Amino acid sequence: MAEAAHIEEVPPHLECAICWKLLLEPVSVPCGHTFCQGCLAQALGYRNVCSVCRAPVPPGQAVNVLIRSMIAEQYPRALAHRRQEQQEELREADDNAAAQRREEVRNDGPSDEALILPILRSVKFALPHSRVEHDTSGQDELVQFALQGGRRVCSLPSNEDLGVCMIIEDFRPATERQHSSFVRLVSKFRVRLIEPPQLHEDGFEIGRFEAMFDTPLPLNDLVVESISGESTEEETASAIGYQCIELLDRQRGMLGPGALYAFAEQCGEIPAAFRRRPGTLTSADLEQLSFWLLGAIVMDEPGRKRLLHSTDTRDRLAACQRKMQAAGPRCVLNLPGADSWMHPGQSSWTSIVLLLVVFGLLVAKACGLFDQAFGRQRSLPLRFG
Ligand SMILES: [Zn+2]
Ligand SMILES: [Zn+2]
């Protein structure tokens, strides 16, 4: 309490009307009200109106440097106290997100123990937080084993010890009509083999894994503006993340409706935490964004592999940012058929032409061209013997 006595008394007009604390990175909106940048971002995530008077607030409001420097000059100790408070809030949010992830790894199993997962061999690396379909013909025992347990498998490329833990969302066994069986999987987190896999009596491999996450980011990296308050030379990981989203939107702007749809089908939407600008992000949010970007951008195989093995979220985000910046007006999005890392030489134009051909076929089908040609065959009754 002795220290608290030294903190200056802050007049109410310098308090944020959302958190009722000293304004931190103050932003003045057109109606004249002023809020902390983080508080405003969070409030605007719900509705684009001022929290006090409900007047509309356009996005992209800058910090009011006049108010900020006035607070820094007149209330230095209150400001330092406020910044420390913010650091603690950030740390708490980040710790909570990390605990949630550990809970996900545990999946009702005992904690601090290796994960035992059946191994689904794959040709290429699956990205964490993505959805894939996998042909599991001849591997029904493996799928059944997973379904009886926690529905989890490890997708692991040959000669690799780094895979991804996946959850089976749907299983379609082979039928008389459909000779292959398929699983739809949602990938969760990376896992590393800790000893050579064993052969299960039902003929599939099973391995002991440990979960692998990126190193948690320093707190300063979790806010868009550097916490120190001064404009630093280095951007925060959050700022790089948002720049990547802007660059990606510019890339998407180059696509027509058909290619846009195909891109969304292939890569899914931007992770939920980034669809609207939240007040604070966690290391887990930024890691998820970095993997989503890695899947959304065409990248050469060695570079991609390095980033998959890396535990540095910031480095992964910066690599995606560089790739899109270097592309300029060229499209580097991972569209169906681009199959980026397997055929690095193939341009995205090839996939656009392919898309046009598919679209043309669809139009032909809609016009009934195929029905005319095959209509008679189809109407023949199928009777044998
Ligand atoms: Zn506030
Ligand atoms: Zn207002």
Automatic annotation (TrEMBL):
The chain crosses the membrane at residues 349-370. InterPro entries: Znf_RING (IPR001841), Znf_RING/FYVE/PHD (IPR013083), Znf_RING_CS (IPR017907). The keyword Transmembrane applies. Residues 16-54 form the RING-type domain. It holds the Pfam family zf-C3HC4_2. This is LON peptidase N-terminal domain and RING finger protein 3. It comes from Durusdinium trenchii. Residues 82-109 are annotated as: Disordered. Keywords: Membrane, Metal-binding, Transmembrane, Transmembrane helix, Zinc, Zinc-finger. It comes from the Eukaryota.
